[in-house]
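User: Design a sequence. Structure:
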């Protein structure tokens, strides 16, 4: 047995040189004439002894447990086997970084992470979410999973995780990366349209005869909704926008425990899609020919049609001129009543007063619902625009904000039922003009009048005056709203040089009286303002604002040039038919 002697010099300057997950390297200064040392180390679980018979003054102690604190005692041993007083040092091995740190799930605004944890220590995990080197969120977790929410769609994030011991020691970082889905990616995945984006869905795909097209089975999933919409639309079914799928909700309700189960599922809106999102998704997936067919059929159903389609998750949009070239309308304005004449022309060639309706901030008045009532005669109400009270119209929009829809009111020549005596085009911008300034600028420069719905102008009124607008402005507010500031309204009206007639307020009146007031204003605009908008000429303004035009693609330009070459020599259509198609002229009429 070795004896402890104060005459034997102890090692000096002992220090921890390096710490790993399963090893600790110690170094010290050797006293004179001492070449043998004994090292003892222990933790709370076990004690081990190591004897060194070397002239080296450093040692790497291996096979330690990660994340564990050890006490090391070092003594000198003389040639006559006497030992010095021990010197101590404490060190804690580093924790093992979490293993298999990976992304479990990604949505538009959240990322779910999971990992494995090994080692013989109790620990927590510090997880950090960063974007462009800036910490966005951080969490301390004891479990093996974490969900970061409220992220921005379409952004790439880095995630860093370290294991944290009770004494504050940390492991090395493990890192992984994930990019949140864009709104369009998420919706196309839910609707089963990923393979058709962009512009890969053709008319032949829609007209293909299969089991889905010849049966009337209800939609059973989100991926069935676009095809059900297209099927009804091709049949010119006015219920095409009322598409939703049936689930096992009834069976679920039968097994519901009213006392113990939560009722959150009754408010779950993730299982439905706003009709405008379905329409926008299909136009983004459809090729030019299908877009034309869809617009033509939507016009026959008296639905509003897309004028500006938002390029989702960007600030860009597309002017849908080519898509509307197939629309032909026939109407009889009251100015032709005496002659009993009528007008029939392609809608893109016709010039109508354009009245646009937009929203600034939040608004307690349903703009689209008011528009529908404005365009409907008392005998027959029709939903030209999708609104909150329609099937799934209350579902939050994911990709259709920024959409500008257009509808037309075309008189039939009957004074008893015509809402307006002359034709008028109506545009409706979905979303806040603060977010979609390009679309708003386009409408300001092409419209005869712009009606701005608002609850609180605040400082946002400056946006109304910065558009170099050629249109006449009307401010439409709800006095019953608690947010409205009448003094701010007066200041805004003064700065915009608006007259009293340009301010329309809904007081303690029902929608019928409010719509009647709005109708008289629009009717006055139609009768007293000569400015008219022609869709074919509006592409110039679109180009000036950086808006893409669907006809700008090379294939469309080539087709237009070829058509021009073929028709350039045709001056009189009737005479051309007689000259070139003689057997289909008078002879054909006689045979018929």
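Assistant: Done.
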């Amino acid at each position: 047995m070795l004896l402890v002697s104060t005459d034997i010099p102890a090692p000096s300057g002992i220090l921890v040189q390096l710490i790993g997950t399963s090893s600790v390297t110690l170094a010290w200064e050797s006293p004179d004439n001492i070449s043998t040392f004994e090292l003892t180390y222990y933790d709370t679980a076990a004690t081990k002894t190591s004897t060194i018979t070397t002239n080296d003054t450093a040692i790497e102690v291996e096979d330690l447990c990660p994340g564990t604190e050890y006490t090391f005692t070092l003594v000198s041993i003389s040639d006559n086997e006497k030992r010095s007083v021990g010197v101590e040092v404490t060190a804690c091995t580093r924790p093992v970084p979490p293993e298999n740190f990976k992304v479990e799930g990604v949505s538009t605004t959240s990322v779910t992470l999971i990992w494995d944890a090994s080692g013989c220590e109790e620990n927590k995990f510090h997880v950090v979410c960063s974007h462009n080197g800036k910490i966005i969120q951080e969490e301390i977790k004891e479990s093996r999973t974490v969900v970061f929410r409220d992220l921005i769609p379409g952004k790439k994030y880095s995630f860093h995780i370290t294991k944290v011991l009770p004494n504050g020691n940390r492991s090395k970082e493990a890192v992984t990366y994930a990019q949140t889905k864009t709104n369009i990616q998420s919706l196309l995945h839910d609707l089963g349209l990923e393979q058709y984006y962009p512009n890969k869905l053709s008319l032949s795909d829609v007209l293909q005869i299969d089991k889905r097209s010849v049966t009337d089975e209800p939609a059973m999933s989100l991926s069935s909704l676009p095809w059900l919409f297209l099927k009804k639309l091709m049949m010119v079914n006015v219920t095409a926008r009322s598409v939703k799928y049936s689930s096992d909700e009834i069976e679920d309700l039968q097994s519901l425990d009213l006392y113990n189960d939560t009722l959150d599922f009754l408010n779950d809106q993730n299982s439905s899609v706003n009709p405008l999102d379905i329409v926008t998704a299909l136009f983004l997936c459809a090729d030019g020919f299908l877009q034309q067919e869809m617009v033509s059929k939507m016009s026959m159903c008296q639905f509003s049609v897309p004028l500006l389609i938002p390029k989702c998750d960007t600030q860009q949009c597309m002017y849908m001129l080519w898509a509307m070239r197939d629309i032909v309308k026939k109407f009889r304005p009251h100015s032709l009543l005496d002659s009993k004449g009528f007008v029939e022309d392609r809608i893109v060639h016709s010039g109508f007063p354009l009245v646009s309706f937009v929203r600034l901030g939040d608004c307690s008045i349903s703009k689209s619902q008011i528009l529908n009532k404005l365009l409907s005669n008392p005998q027959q109400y029709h939903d030209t625009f999708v609104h909150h009270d329609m099937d799934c119209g209350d579902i939050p929009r994911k990709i259709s904000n920024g959409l500008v829809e257009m509808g037309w009111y075309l008189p039939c020549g009957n004074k008893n039922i015509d809402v307006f005596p002359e034709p008028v085009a109506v545009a409706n911008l979905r979303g806040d003009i603060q977010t979609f300034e390009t679309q708003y600028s386009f409408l300001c420069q092409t419209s005869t009048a712009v009606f701005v719905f608002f609850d609180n102008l605040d400082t946002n009124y400056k946006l109304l005056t910065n558009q170099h607008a050629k249109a006449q402005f009307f401010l439409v507010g709800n006095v019953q709203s608690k947010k409205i500031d009448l003094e701010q309204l007066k200041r805004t009206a003064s700065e915009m040089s608006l007259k009293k007639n340009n301010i329309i307020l809904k007081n303690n009146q029902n929608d019928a009286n409010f719509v009647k007031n709005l109708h008289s204003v629009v009717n006055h605009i139609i009768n007293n303002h000569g400015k008219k908008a022609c869709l074919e000429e509006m592409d110039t303004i679109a180009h000036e604002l950086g808006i893409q035009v669907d006809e700008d693609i090379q294939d469309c330009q080539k087709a237009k040039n070829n058509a021009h070459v073929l028709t350039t020599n045709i001056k009189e259509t009737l005479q051309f038919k007689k000259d070139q198609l003689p057997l289909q002229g008078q002879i054909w009429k006689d045979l018929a």
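The first strand starts at residue 3 and ends at 4. The two ends are 130 Å apart (CA to CA).
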